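for ur thesis appendix - Transport-associated protein. copy paste whatever u need, i formatted it the way the template wanted (i think)
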Amino acid sequence: MKKTEKYLNLAIVTVLALSLTVGCTRVRREKPENYVSDSWITAKVRGALMKNTLINTANIQVLTYRRVVRLGGSVDDQAQADETIKIAKGILGVKSIKNKMVIKSKDNNKNSSKENNNKEHSKK
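the 3d part is after this line
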């Protein structure tokens, strides 16, 4: 009887000791941008663009998919396009930029708008 009681006590102590280590796992440190959603990025880019008085945001579209921001619509000149890209790159979580913006021509001829660079800009 004493031997059985000894083994039972040993088993209980072992189970209790092991149960204390169940929650002791190593915590991985994730980068903040891994938690950023596409809709959050889109909202932040739009907000940052609206704060800039040099950019006419009325004709700029911002879409985000898998942290890649697509900028579309029209801008008045190359400087506005460059500034728009720069602002979008500065938002936390943005992986790259796809520029689909067009530059408005001086004359109001719809066919004379030229497409801007149409390149993908990686964030560095």
